[in-house]
Amino acid sequence: MSLMRDFFANTRKPGKGVTGKMMLQMMNIMHNKNALWCLSNLEIEKTASILEIGCGGGKNISNLLEKAPDAKVYGIDYSETSVENSRKFNRKAVSEGKVEVVQGSVSSLPFEDRKFDLATAFETIYFWPDLLNDFKEVNRVLKPGGKFFICNEAARPEGSEKWTDKIDMTIYTKEQLKDILIMAGFTNIQTHEHGNGEWICVMAQKP
Ligand SMILES: C[S@@+](CC[C@H](N)C(=O)[O-])C[C@H]1O[C@@H](n2cnc3c(N)ncnc32)[C@H](O)[C@@H]1O
Which of 29, 61, 127, 138 to mutate to test the pocket of ligand 1 (most atoms within 8 A of CB)? Predict the structure, then answer.
């Protein structure tokens, strides 16, 4: 593996070394324009219970709390370094009990059925191992009527070589996502596109 691919492997699962931490700081800054655009399409109940999946450096945990200050936000990530970073980035909210960050995989979420009003996934589904089963797992932890919100800065499989040459990832079209979400039991699927469809956010609801 080249040094470049080694470095970018930290997008998939930030490692324990300096490069993992550096990548998380970069992602907190570089993903934020996309994240804020995505969040502008979302309304959140003031006291919502929220699960932020693949929380990385933790910036979207704080973005969600800014939008819904009385919410409780749980972050989850399978990388130990992401969990540490998210806790540090949100240390005040963690100490106030508004945020909890746990280590775990989307494929087996350590939460009971019907716990959350909202689940979010920013720049992470490219790496999930089995999208249909992972979406079913998200569906399981949502309350009836709960929403699943996906934000992707890469939305076109063709023409995304600047990412796929460096990173082991799968880029999904909005049509593919819609089909898989329906198979996983979601309904009321809405897609927002930015520019010429470079960025997408997809909202789906548990019936
Ligand atoms: C590209 S980073 C995005 C981080 C953050 N959401 C953002 O937008 O800046 C992808 C994150 O998803 C996490 N991730 C990838 N696959 C995962 C899985 N199967 N379960 C939990 N977390 C996962 C990675 O560890 C990483 O922190």
Answer: 127
